[in-house]
Amino acid sequence: MTASAATPPSPARPRPRRPGELYPRYGFPNDLLAKLAEVGARVVDRPVTPIYGDERSGIRILRVIGPIAWLLLRSGLRRVARQRQIRARLAAVRPTSG
């Protein structure tokens, strides 16, 4: 028996993203902040009071901690790599003294 091609991705393992596309669901704010940091954007922290009413959170910490940890690690490594590229380009352009 083969798996159906129409099987939706699980929330813990979302579908592959295209370049520039933001992470869905609970990782969205972290991904957005990481992408803004990559381009050097300034961000302001604004307090927001969540309003849930009688609703309960649907987050399952054990299901999202791995994907979000991977998102943060990958974003951090990408930022470090980009900073190294920028430094290398600046060093190549900078005139040597002497």
Account of the protein in words:
The chain has 98 residues and is mainly alpha-helical. Helix 1 runs parallel beside helix 2 (61-93). The protein is built from 2 helices and no strands. The model has no long low-confidence stretch (mean pLDDT 79).
What spatial form do the alpha-carbon principal axes imply? elongated
How much helical structure, as a percent, in the residues? 40-55%
What structural class do you assign from the helix and strand content? mainly alpha
The separation of the N and C termini measures: 72 Å
Radius of gyration using CA atoms only: 20 Å
Number of helices: 2
Highlighted features:
98 residues; single chain; mainly alpha
Quick structural gist:
By secondary structure, this protein is mainly alpha-helical.
List the helices and strands and how they pair.
Layout: H1 28-38, H2 61-93
Helix pairs in contact: 1-2
